[in-house]
Amino acid sequence: MNQSKRKFGRVLLVGRPNVGKSTFVNNLIGQKVAITSPKAQTTRFPIHALYHDERGRIIFVDTPGIFNKAEDALAKIINHKTMQAIKEAVDVVVYMVDQSRRRDFEEGRVLGIVRKIDRPKILVINKIDQGERYLAQYKFLEDEFKDVFVVSALKHQHTKPLMDKIFSLLPEEKAGDAQQENLTVPYPLLNLDSKTFIAELIREKVLLMTGEEIPYRTTVVVEEIKERNDKLTYIKAKILTTEDRYKRMLVGSGGRKIKEIGAYARKEIALATSKKIYLDLKVETDPHWQETYY
Ligand SMILES: Nc1nc2c(ncn2[C@@H]2O[C@H](COP(=O)(O)OP(=O)(O)OP(=O)(O)O)[C@@H](O)[C@H]2O)c(=O)[nH]1
Ligand SMILES: [Mg+2]
Q1: Angle, to 10 degrees, between the axis of helix 159-169 and the axis of helix 21-29?
Q2: 235: enclosing H helix or E strand
Q3: Which of 16, 26, 139, 174 has its Cα between 20 and 30 A from that of 225?
Q4: Residue 5 Cα, ligand 2 centroid: separation in angstroms?
Q5: Which CATH number is correct for 7-180, 3.40.50.11210, 3.80.10.10, 1.10.287.1770, 3.40.50.300?
Q6: Chain segment 127-141, per-residue pLDDT in tens
C-alpha cells in the first residue's frame, strides 16, 4: 500500500468574539494554549499552536474575535491584530459561527472579511451541544461554503470529519518546513514566552471571577519568574486596571477578591508547570496600560 505523505500547513481561525475559537484549539491539542471565557475580547492577540497526529502537523492561528464596533482603543488594536493575521499566508481558513446566538450585523461584518480571503474556507457552526438554537439563521451560508461542519468544540463532537477535511486541504510537508516555522520546540504554544503565557492564565481568572466591566479595563503583567529551588518557583505579577474604583473591586473587601484570583491562578500555573508556585500578585492603577502593553 502507498504510504501517503505527511501534511503540513497553517490554518487560520476567524469569527466573532465568543464563538469558541480558542476552546476548539485547546480541545484539539488537548492542552490549554489559549485562555477562554464567556466574555468577549478574551483572546487579545493571535496565538500560534501546533497540532500533530500521524497525518502531519498543523499550525493553528487562533485570532481575537472581530468586533463590529471597535469603540475603545484596545478593541481597535485587537481588531487590527486579527486583520494582520488574516493577511499572513495560510493554507486553510476556518470561519467559526455560534449557532446559540442570533446572526447580527457583527456576523455580517465578519462574513464580509472572510469573503475577501482568497484561500480554501471551511464553515464551522459551533455549540451544537446546546441543541439547535439559531442554526436555521446560518443555513444560508451553506450555499457559499462548500464544506460545512456542525460541531461542539467544548464537547469534542463531530470534530473528526472536520479534521479529515482540513488535512485533505493541506499541502504535503516539504523538507525544511519545520526549521522555517521554528518547530523544533516540543511545546505546542509557539508564539508566547512563559511570562506572557502565565500572565494570560492569570487574566483568564480575572475574566472568570469579575463582573462585566472590569475585564476590558484590565491586563496582567508578569514581572519576574525565579526558580527558588527544584520544587518551588516564585512568580511576581501585577494586575493593571485603568481606575481606582476597578482596583478596589479587584482587591475586594479585606483583599478577598485578589486572594481568590491568586489562589485559582496559582493552582493552574502549578498544574501547567508541574512545580509548586509562590504567586506574588498585586493590583495597580495605570490609566495608560493599553498604550504601554498593547
Ligand atoms: N456550550 C458550548 N459552549 C462553548 C463551546 N465552545 C465554546 N464554548 C464556550 O463559549 C465561550 C467562549 O469560548 P472561547 O473559546 O473563549 O471563544 P473565542 O471565540 O475564542 O472568543 P474570543 O477570544 O473573545 O474571540 C466559553 O465560555 C466557552 O466555554 C461549545 O461547543 N459548546
Ligand atoms: Mg479566543
Answers
A1: 90
A2: strand 232-241
A3: 26
A4: 32
A5: 3.40.50.300
A6: 999 999 999 999 889
